[in-house]
Structures are given as structure tokens and as C-alpha cells.
Amino acid sequence: MSGSSTSLRKDATRLTRETARILKFRGGRLAAADRVAIEGRLKELDQALAKDAGDQALAAAAESLRARLDKHHDVLKRATIREYVQSLGTAVGVALLIRAFIFEAFKIPTGSMIPSLLIEDHIFVNKYTYGLRLPFTHWRFVEGNTPQRGEVTVFEYPGPGEDHGKDFIKRIVAVAGDRVRLTGNRLVINGLEIPTEVLSNDAACDDNTFSRCRCVRQQERLGDFEYITQHLAPPPVNSSINCVNSPDWPLNDDGTADLPEVTVPEGHVLAMGDNRDNSSDGRFWGFLPVENAKGRAIVMWWPPSRMFKAVH
């Protein structure tokens, strides 16, 4: 079959579908005889398609139907309220399906991910990457990837209290079986300090909580991801009692560090904020069950100055 024949059949098929839709929703506006005439031309075109008629016969049948429709164009051109409602319902349904299973928009509510994500940043989250999950449950009917080191992940807060079930966003720093600790603001995984480079020892914190403090910013590499974290600078850069850095984790009960390692249990990951001294994360409420992960942050879409910037 030539390209022109294929195109002709596609156009004819599209015409039959459109005509059937018009008759279904707007056919009541026609006189009975006019509706019967259009239905007859539609039947002829359907038969030409079913019998695989030649191009000439198919074109003639399509032209005859168009002529009949054009004769009543003024009567049939206006869509009905039912059509508008159906189109709107379809659009809403598709949007809800996309939001439930594929992509969802989130707004960053706190400064825990500064400088990677700022308060009021709007991002898109890929929910499909961790598999398809039945809404309002943790049951995945299609399995996907598990959160990996370095990924910025949106998840349901697993701890008790008023935040239980709320959406949080942090970076995954360790996965099941990893041994983890922080030593001197350096992340140590399985006995090895991850690649870290200090970019500034006296940077603005960009965090209202630390408006009078200065921060150290450092670039870290974890897995395939390279990103910037910050922590409060030590004295003499900061001397206020409100600007105290916590360089080590975990700590003894008395607050002193003996630098033990913690091991991430099976079925869990460890999540931390990039704003290390102002983040409620796994150092305080424990390990994150993988089943609580909702999706991976992929791109910002607001504000305009950061639009379409990938989340690293």
C-alpha cells in the first residue's frame, strides 16, 4: 500500500469516528430525513473501509459524507454541554492518573535541603521510578527501583507524632547494609570518606533560621550524584551560641562523640538533609522504610530563575 493510500485510509477512518461522535451528541438537532441521509453516507464509508475498497471509491465515499456534513455545518458546529463536560472529565481523569502514578508537583516547605532546594521551590517528582503504588497505601502492584545513594527522594514521614504520613524530602545517603557515620562534617560510608571538597568557609547560609550565621559549603560526590551541602562554620567565623555546628554523628547519650557506625537495616535507607545543621532527618527519627518512598525529585519548575533546573 502506497503512502498516499495509507494517508487516505487514516483520514477516512478519522472522518467516520468524528461523524459518529457528532451524530451521538448533536444529531438531535437535525431533521429525521437529514440524519438518515448522513447515517447512510457514514455506512457507505464504513463499508468501503471494511471491504478495502480502492482509493477512488474510498475518496468518493469520504467526499460524499463530507458534503452532507457541510450542508448542515451551522447546525452541527457547536459542541454540546455534554461534550464539554466529557472532555473536561477526561482531562481531569488523565491528570489525576498522571499525578497518582507518574509525576506529581511538590512545593518545598522548609530549608532542610538548602542549598540544593530553597524554600518555596516547586519541583516535579517522578513517582514511577520506584514502581506503581496503589494510592493511599504502601502496596506496589508494579515494582520499580529502590532509592539509591545520592538521590533526592520524597517520602512519607515514618515517625510518630503530628508529622506522621506527611511528605518529606531528603537526600538518600546510605542503603541497606551500609555502615554510616559523620566525622568532622564528612560523610563516611563503609569506612571510606566520600569525595568532599570545601567550596567556601564563610558563605551566606540562605536560611532565615541562621540569618546571623555563616556556613561552610562543600561539594560531595555520592554514587552518580554530585551536589553541595552546607553546615554552620566553626569559630571564629561563628561565635554566637545560635550558630553551633554539629560535626559528628552518632553521639553518645551525654552528647559526646565516640564515632560509632550505624548499619542500615534491610528494607530501609538513611536520609539526610543537605542543610546539615537544620534538618529533621534520619539522624533524629531513624531509618526510612523503602516502602515509604513516593518518588525521586527530578526537576524544578518554579520560580522562573530556576525553572527546568535538574535536581542533583
Instruction: Kindly report the spatial arrangement of strands forming the biggest sheet.
Output: 1-2-16-5-6-14-15
Q: What fraction, in percent, of the residue positions are helical?
A: 25-40%
**Structure class:** alpha+beta
- What is the distance, rounded to the nearest whole angstrom, between the alpha carbons of the first and last residues? 50 Å
Kindly estimate the percentage of residues that lie in beta strands according to DSSP: 25-35%
Assigned CATH class of the largest domain? Mainly Beta
CATH topology description of the largest domain:
Umud Fragment, subunit A
Main beta sheet: 7 strands, antiparallel
Quaternary organization: single chain
Mean residue pLDDT? 88
- Please mark out the parts with pLDDT under 50 across 5 or more consecutive residues, or reply none: none
Q: What count of domains describes the coordinates?
A: 2
What is the overall number of helices?
6
- Any idea what the radius of gyration is? 30 Å
Order of helices and strands: HHHHHEEEEEEEEEEEEEEHEE
Explain what you see.
- The chain has 312 residues and is α+β, with helices and mostly antiparallel strands.
- It folds into two domains: 3-78, Substrate Binding Domain Of Dnak, Chain:A, Domain 2 (Up-down Bundle); 104-306, Ribbon (Umud Fragment, subunit A).
- It has helices at residues 3-26, 32-50, 55-71, 73-76, 81-101, 282-285; strands spanning 103-107, 122-126, 131-133, 140-143, 152-156, 167-175, 179-183, 186-189, 192-193, 196-204, 214-222, 225-232, 262-263, 268-272, 288-289, 293-302.
- The strands form four sheets. The protein has a seven-stranded antiparallel sheet with strand order 1-2-16-5-6-14-15. Strands 9-8-7-13 form a four-stranded antiparallel sheet, with no helix packed on it.
- It starts with a helix and ends in a 10-residue tail after the last strand.
- The model has no long low-confidence stretch (mean pLDDT 88).
